[in-house]
Amino acid sequence: MTNEVTVPLLPCASIDDIVTFYEVLGFQTTYKQRKPNPYVALRREDLHLHFFEMAGFDPEQSYGSCLVLTSDIAELHRAFAAGMRAAYGKVLVSGTPRMTRPRVRRNYDGLGGFSLIDPGGNWIRVVQNAATTPAVAAAPSGRLAKALANAIVQGDSKGDVGQAIRILDSTLARPQSGDDPVALVEVLVYRAELAMVLRDEETAREMLARANAVVLSADETQRAAPTFEAAADLLRSCAPTSTV
Q1: Per-residue model confidence (pLDDT) at position 168
Q2: Which of 70, 115, 141, 207 is most buried per CB count within 10 Å?
Q3: Region 9-130: CATH code
Q4: In angstroms, rounded to a whole number, what is the distance separating the alpha carbons of residues 141 and 224?
């Protein structure tokens, strides 16, 4: 047999909340029912996701997850981010729902990926399709890059934000003269993102301020540009500081 299609069926507390969120990301409802059981089918091009509603379901306790293979994670992330900015004025980086940034995953042979955590607490894990990606990123070198890679596995893949924070805080507590300044910016911005997941805006602001204070050459500034763009998204997510 050929042309088989597998569609994930994921739990949620409210199919209405699911529809509202995924429409922001460019999905369309292809089927929806209330009886005998609340159920909705969503589609964005070739990406299909189905959801069923459970009474009393707690998204924070969800184990729902699925893998999405794509030939262009950057473009899909840009589309999702654009939808969020249009609907919410920012990319959602804390609470539920939220979305992580595309990053190289050490536990996925150096290919990139990002995660979307929807209102049902489901982790939609978007990763680069190895079959369409001939080149694999080199293994991280330098203590900051290695620490960042390990933290990403814990925070973005496993969802263990606490362990990711411990890795980064331990590394940041021991600065070394030979540290790559661009890697330092990346570590600080990721630490700020993890703080936002925990709604710790004070720490997020501190880390972003430290990232902005890193002295960079013109070439290093260019290399760090995508990270500073993500930092701007994080700053927009922070509540305005009171002037009272």
Answers
A1: 97
A2: 207
A3: 3.10.180.10
A4: 17
